[in-house]
Design a protein that fits this description.
Layout: E1 2-6, H1 11-22, E2 26-31, E3 46-49, H2 57-63, E4 68-71, H3 78-83, H4 85-105, E5 110-116, H5 140-159, E6 162-168, E7 170-172, H6 184-193, E8 199-201, E9 207-208, E10 210-212, H7 213-223, E11 230-234, E12 240-241, H8 242-253, E13 260-262, H9 277-283, H10 291-305
Parallel strand pairs: 1-2, 1-4, 2-3, 4-5, 5-6, 6-11, 7-10, 8-13
Antiparallel strand pairs: 9-12
The structure holds nicotinamide-adenine-dinucleotide.
Length: 308
């Protein structure tokens, strides 16, 4: 298949590109390198440095006849979305509509969308949340992911494009950016390995569902086979406190360094964990990495590639 991966120089997008190329697909990437890195880009893909909001994106659709668009490009920092919701919406809503308009115009059959199981449900009523849980995002970022799903519904209804929306839990693994505000595993890993003291926001008793990037990528591979439009949670159903995550990382890295605690951040819910039962039944997806194994691989990667 001929596939456009937006955000293909980023953390998750670059792993998806690798997997698609390994599976024999023809891949084009659009990425503006705002948080992505050129060294993540697979040499087997055609790389176009562009912003998804720009008119020049049309030329890419015109030149290639894409079967599928896998949309990963986004502003993905919850806190930045709280501070600058206009920037967030321009990237995550207007940018996505630009991609969808071109998808319709140039006959794309299917769109795979990276939604968020961590941000879309808000403070949960029950644990783990399934896809039927009420949608009450606590941040502008979560709102844009919900809006993205609604636009997909509109485009499917009116233009017959099929879609798969994958609501990722907290994804971690090699190539995650350790410099931003998002991506707690990457930030803690780099600090622990460099012997700096990390800051845990709030009590550290907030929980997250940490899913390894290689498991997440399988969701994008399996979605290519889906004939009907659908929405799936991609998480582990395992709830881990940030304090426990920190201890597991320290243990895996053989470090004694204690974290300190800072104030809790706006826009983030306290507990988050999602059920993958629907994905298991209808997509054939389930996680295969334990947190311990995923953290081990992540630490190995950071030791090799991220330390000065
Ligand atoms: N990391 C997570 O835990 C997580 C959880 C849920 C959903 N997601 C979603 O998964 C997707 C990938 O996230 P990630 O963690 O790999 O983040 P990332 O920042 O590494 O990747 C995003 C990529 O998109 C590019 N990009 C951003 N804005 C762009 C624009 N306007 N035009 C072109 N390119 C642009 C960036 O340069 C980057 O390469 C995002 O849509 C994010 O919202 C991530």
């Amino acid at each position: 298949m001929k596939i456009l991966v937006t955000g293909g120089a980023g953390f998750i997008g670059s792993h998806i590109v690798d997997a698609y190329i390994d599976a024999g697909h023809d891949v084009v990437i659009i990425d503006d390198l705002s948080t992505g890195r050129i060294q993540n880009v697979n040499r087997g893909a055609e790389f176009i440095c562009a912003n998804i909001q720009d008119a020049e994106v049309e030329e890419v659709f015109q030149r290639h006849s894409f079967d599928v668009v896998n949309h990963q490009a986004a502003q993905m920092d919850v806190r930045r979305s709280v501070e600058d919701p206009i920037f967030d919406a321009r990237n995550n809503v207007i940018g996505f509509i630009n991609i969808l308009q071109n998808a319709v115009k140039y006959g794309v059959k299917k769109v795979i969308f990276s939604s968020s199981g961590g941000a879309i449900y808000g403070e949960q009523d029950y644990f783990p949340a399934d896809e039927e849980h009420k949608l009450q995002p606590y941040s502008p970022y979560g709102i844009t992911k919900l809006v993205g799903e609604k636009y997909l519904f509109f485009y499917a209804l009116n233009y017959g494009i099929k879609y798969t929306a994958l609501r990722y839990a907290n994804v971690y693994g090699p190539r995650q950016n350790p410099f931003g505000e998002a991506g707690v595993v990457a930030i803690f890993t780099k600090m622990i390995l460099e012997n700096h003291q990390p800051v845990i926001n709030g009590s550290g008793e907030q929980t997250r569902d940490f899913v390894y990037v290689k498991d997440v990528v399988k969701g994008s591979l399996l979605s290519l086979q889906q004939k009907e439009s659908n929405i799936f949670n991609i998480g582990t159903s395992r709830e881990t406190t940030v304090n426990t995550l920190y201890d597991s990382l320290r243990k895996a890295a053989n470090s004694q360094i204690e974290a300190k605690h800072g104030p809790a951040k706006d826009g983030e819910q306290f507990r988050s964990v999602i059920s993958y039962k629907k994905a298991e039944k209808e997509l054939g997806w389930k996680p295969s990495y334990t947190l311990e194994k995923g953290l081990e691989e992540t630490i190995d990667y950071f030791k090799k590639y991220e330390l000065q």
